[in-house]
Amino acid sequence: MSLQVKRPKGTQDVLPADIMKWRTVEATVSDTAEQFGFREIRTPVFEDTALYVRSVGDTSDVVTKEMYTVSSKGDATFTLRPEGTAGVVRAMLENGMMNEGFPQKVYYIIPAYRHEKPQAGRLREFHQFGVEMFGTQSPYADAEIILLAAAILDGCGLENVALHLNSIGCPECRAKYREALREYFAPHREELCETCRERLEKNPMRLLDCKSPICREIASGAPVILDYLCDGCREHFEELKSILDDYGIKYEVDSRIVRGLDYYTRTVFEFISQDIGAQGTVCGGGRYDGLVQELGGQPVPALGFGMGLERLIMTMESCGCAFEPEKTPDLYIAPMGDAARRKAALLADAVRQAGYAAETDLVGRGLKPQMRYADKIGAKFVVVIGDNELETGEAKLKNMRSGEETPVKLSEFMNAFSSELINEVFENGLGDEIAGAVADEIEKDTSL
Hints:
Elements: H1 19-35, E1 39-40, E2 46-48, H2 49-56, H3 61-66, E3 69-71, E4 77-80, H4 85-94, E5 104-113, E6 125-134, H5 139-155, E7 161-167, H6 171-185, H7 194-202, H8 213-219, H9 231-247, E8 252-253, E9 265-273, E10 281-287, H10 291-294, E11 302-308, H11 309-319, E12 331-335, H12 338-353, E13 358-360, H13 367-376, E14 381-385, H14 387-392, E15 394-399, E16 405-409, H15 413-427, H16 432-442
Parallel strand pairs: 1-5, 7-8, 12-13, 12-14
Antiparallel strand pairs: 2-4, 3-4, 5-6, 6-11, 7-9, 9-10, 10-11, 14-15, 15-16
Helix pairs in contact: 1-5, 5-9, 15-16
């Protein structure tokens, strides 16, 4: 009995029927980022484990529970990236990009890996879009990052999304806040979950985003970070809010946003959808001014955000947002007989070289099965070629949408096909630009 191998838990297959959803989202995020002056960067899928321990923090869930780490020959250990920021900082330092003019602005679309319980919108292998900006402390930079995220979500068609905003201060004012949290939670120590009891000494701010109902209830009365901000952090936060007001960006100050990664400072934010239940965060980010120095560089302020593409697509589906339609062949050539099959292959090649999509029979079907197949794949036009068509040098080009058939000479097939395609474009209201591109092909010498 053969063993059926299945995909690993917490992963998913993206099938051809869904690929246009991904292409729609990937085009939207990359095009919008480039409008804001961000350039794409690509980094390895695995890094030295020490990179994530130093950057993410050895008390974070990512490091203590979720990383996929392997040993190579020798003593080195490597980790599949659980997030994108640390690898980008390492790459920019190693390749001298921090010595170039500021601000440096990059974006990426990556697969990432975390060992956690799979659920809707949260997988062990997931895909993340992220942006990073380096070299500016200005709250205008914070506002631009938020504007970029808002523009992407708007470009995806999402409407019922709220911006939640907070400041978690700098290391100096945050140290006082942590002590206040320890004092608050200490009397409740035995009521906390095991994870939070460990966090209480190492990183008490993490208690504020625990998902345990008991811990959340206890945390509801905890001190608020905004009451502990130093003058510089408070001024930065107030100016950011004023800038967002100028832009007309609505926001809600949410003192419970603390972010799960230790490298964040000052501004933190989330965009939360009301359409996908408890897992409603579709974007999260903020400022991490100490990370570059932590990873061996000079002190360089930095900020950015990340979006999980699976969750973004799930949200768009829930909201009925539009995706680019699946691409279908412009032409299907149905041959009948060996001689016709040779002619069909040449015609298909000519059509493809002219820039169109064409298919022809490869499995030896009869005419009716071929017509059903052409309809199934959504071919715009079909031409049937048999012995009679080869003898007369003429065939009929069928518009599969209207059912109309147009006689065409095989010797002038490309010109006739291009003309019919132009007519189809105009009838469907797709505009002069597309029709013009099709018309350009008529000028090419594609006669057979």
